Amino acid sequence: DAGVxxxxxxxxxxxxxxxxxxxxxxxxxxxxxxxxxxLGQGPQFIFQYYxxxxxxxxxxxxxxxxxxxxxxxxxLNVNALLLGDSALYLCASSWGLEQFFGPGxxxxxx
Amino acid sequence: xxxxxxxxxxxSVVEKEDVTLDCVYETRDTTYYLFWYKQPPSGELVFLIRRxxxxxxxxxxxxxxxxxxxxxxSFNFTITASQVVDSAVYFxxxxxxxxxxYFGTGTSLTVIP
Lengths: 110, 113
Description:
By secondary structure, chain A is mainly β. Chain A contains no helices and 11 strands. Chain A is 0% helix and 55% strand.
């Protein structure tokens, strides 16, 4: 059984561009959460999707948006990239209190 | 407001020493869950333990043990007889049901052979 998978592994973009990150949850998990982890910091909650709808949102601007598909996979979109968006983006899938994290996507904005 | 504090930014120990990682949390909710995660250099967060607010019983799993004390709002993690493979960043996290995860800033542990 595959765990949580994320793609791509690494990504380099320039300021102002848009980026889409992808996440496939662990089998049997119906909820996907996204986190941003800046260097030397703990993960910060971006938002959570359940039944294809955004259920909760952290303190992130509208430039951050997402989507969940019927198969529970999810995308994170970031528009108008800023240098400060450079971080490790972690996806976590959950079912009840069981939450597993993916390996993350390292985004570098130049 | 919810908050998790890990005051120890970096810790270095010599292999086989015991080490305790501190975690202090803040919440006004009476029902909550506390977690510890390990993050090796690869970046993936590895689940170690979950405790609910109604269960203060300490737990031991092999070389790992956890001490939960509601009176001091602490959930400390001890590694006994540390090994080089324990080197990683460790995060303490707080979950309020129906809410989001709140992570501490992490403690970077280096075990020196």
